[in-house]
């Protein structure tokens, strides 16, 4: 074989080696790419979501878009908690998977990705009555040894394994604001309770900072611990459910909380079928300040700012609570409806009074007889029991206190 042919063979061999290396690298890159994680709901634009259904059956939570936010459709369109909706949506959008685990419907039940067996279900709906489902997730069982969670994507019915299971709250109370009123205890000026049994007012004593009662009945004292509980009931007032209307309510009790910044919260309370319902009203009773001027002191400007913030907060709460009825817990209702008789008790007698009080039962008949005899024999002197006869013989003598009779 000539040198020329050898050179040609060497070149061909080199090309083949390079080609084989390139093919091997391409093959390896393809394998790595198939194992690379990707977002399962990539391409889902939150702006396209017209509604969200969480859970299944009668307990499902139904949210629908209203303006820039969402409302709870199965609670008469009460405003949904934006933060909670956003967190749930982020949990779903953050789900990452690699390759399809199965698309065989016969395996769905064993993997827990049927609607009946699922641990969590969420469906994102679009504004299209003919084809409303935009996308969705059905979260199933965890793999053995906790290596991942089976997740079925809707509507294509493919099952994937995700290293992280999304947290999707399914209780309806998670999706509306449960905190009705919140006030710092130090900001409370007074509270007034009114009801069929009367009314009373609690406030803070300026000197001791203890809770006291205005016009406390004579001979009575305040149960301090119970009074503190009633006074601070608005440090956190939360609801368990919300309704647009409830028939047959008699809102015959009121709890009125006045703050130092001229805010007044009024909660009207009714009981029906073992449940406690309230309505909330918020007022600002102070003078609405104008915007500060440059010549005013920093102290005056801060005071005006605080009043403006209080005024704005009152307006927002008034708009939110107007026309709604809330259901609260029974234990919280006890603090809002405590009767006057349950808040006071009889004053204890002072030690001086107790020491001056004669226990008649402890005085026996012999003691009374001896006392009467002593008084009868001589009222002008102290008579020893064994010296009665001597005293009679010397009634005209003056006996010195320290003189011993013979």
What features would you describe in this structure?
The chain is α+β, with helices and mostly antiparallel strands and 406 residues long. It has helices at residues 3-35, 82-93, 108-111, 224-231, 298-321, 330-336, 351-356, 365-377, 388-393, and strands at 38-39, 51-54, 61-66, 69-72, 78-79, 96-102, 120-125, 133-142, 149-154, 158-162, 179-181, 188-195, 198-204, 211-213, 220-222, 237-238, 241-243, 253-259, 263-272, 275-284, 325-328, 344-346. Strand 8 (133-142) and strand 9 form a beta hairpin. The N and C termini lie far apart (169 Å).
Overall form: elongated
Structural class: alpha+beta
Number of helices: 9
Distance between the termini: 169 Å
Please list the strands of the largest sheet in the order they lie side by side. Answer: 1-6-10-9-8-7-2-3-4-5
Main β-sheet, in a few words?
10 strands, antiparallel
Over all CA atoms, what is the radius of gyration? 42 Å
Strand % is: 25-35%
Number of structurally distinct domains = 4
Mean pLDDT: 82
Q: Runs with pLDDT <50, length 5+?
A: 4-9, 15-34, 375-406
Explain the layout of strands and helices:
Elements: H1 3-35, E1 38-39, E2 51-54, E3 61-66, E4 69-72, E5 78-79, H2 82-93, E6 96-102, H3 108-111, E7 120-125, E8 133-142, E9 149-154, E10 158-162, E11 179-181, E12 188-195, E13 198-204, E14 211-213, E15 220-222, H4 224-231, E16 237-238, E17 241-243, E18 253-259, E19 263-272, E20 275-284, H5 298-321, E21 325-328, H6 330-336, E22 344-346, H7 351-356, H8 365-377, H9 388-393
Antiparallel strand pairs: 1-6, 2-3, 2-7, 3-4, 4-5, 6-10, 7-8, 8-9, 9-10, 11-16, 12-13, 12-18, 13-14, 15-22, 17-21, 18-19, 19-20, 20-21
């Amino acid at each position: 074989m000539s040198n020329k042919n050898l050179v040609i063979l060497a070149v061909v061999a080199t090309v083949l080696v390079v080609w084989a290396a390139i093919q091997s690298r391409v093959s390896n890159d393809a394998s790595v790419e198939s194992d690379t994680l990707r977002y399962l709901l990539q391409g889902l634009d939150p702006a396209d979501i017209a509604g969200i259904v969480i859970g299944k059956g009668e307990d499902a939570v139904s949210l629908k878009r209203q303006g820039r936010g969402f409302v709870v459709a199965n609670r008469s369109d009460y405003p949904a908690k934006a933060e909670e909706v956003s967190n749930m949506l982020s949990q779903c959008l953050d789900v990452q998977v690699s390759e399809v685990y199965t698309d065989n419907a016969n395996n769905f039940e064993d993997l827990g990705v049927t609607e009946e067996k699922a641990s969590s279900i969420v469906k994102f709906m679009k504004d299209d009555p003919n084809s409303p489902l935009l996308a969705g997730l059905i979260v199933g069982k965890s793999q053995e040894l906790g290596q991942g969670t089976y997740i079925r994507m809707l509507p294509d019915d493919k099952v994937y394994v995700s290293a992280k299971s999304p947290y999707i709250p399914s209780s309806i109370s998670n999706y509306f604001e449960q905190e009705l009123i919140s006030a710092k205890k130090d900001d409370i000026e007074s509270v007034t309770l009114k009801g069929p049994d009367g009314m009373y007012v609690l406030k803070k004593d300026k000197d001791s900072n203890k809770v006291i009662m205005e016009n406390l009945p004579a001979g009575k004292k305040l149960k301090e611990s119970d009074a503190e509980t009633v006074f601070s009931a608005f440090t956190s007032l939360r609801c368990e459910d919300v309704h647009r209307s409830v028939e047959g309510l008699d809102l015959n009790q009121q709890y009125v909380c006045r703050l130092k910044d001229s805010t007044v919260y009024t909660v009207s309370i009714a009981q029906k079928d073992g449940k406690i319902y309230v309505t909330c009203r918020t007022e600002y009773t102070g003078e609405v300040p104008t915007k500060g001027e440059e010549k005013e002191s920093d102290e005056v400007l801060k005071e005006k700012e605080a009043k403006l913030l209080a005024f704005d907060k009152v307006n927002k709460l008034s708009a939110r609570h107007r026309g709604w009825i809330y259901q609260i817990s029974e234990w919280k209702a006890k603090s809002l409806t405590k009767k006057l008789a349950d808040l006071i008790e009889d004053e204890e007698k002072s030690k001086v009074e107790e020491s001056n009080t004669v226990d008649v039962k402890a005085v026996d008949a012999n003691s009374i007889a001896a006392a009467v005899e002593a008084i009868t024999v001589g009222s002008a002197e102290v008579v020893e029991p064994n010296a009665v006869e001597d005293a009679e013989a010397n009634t005209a003598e003056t006996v010195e206190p320290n003189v011993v009779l013979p």
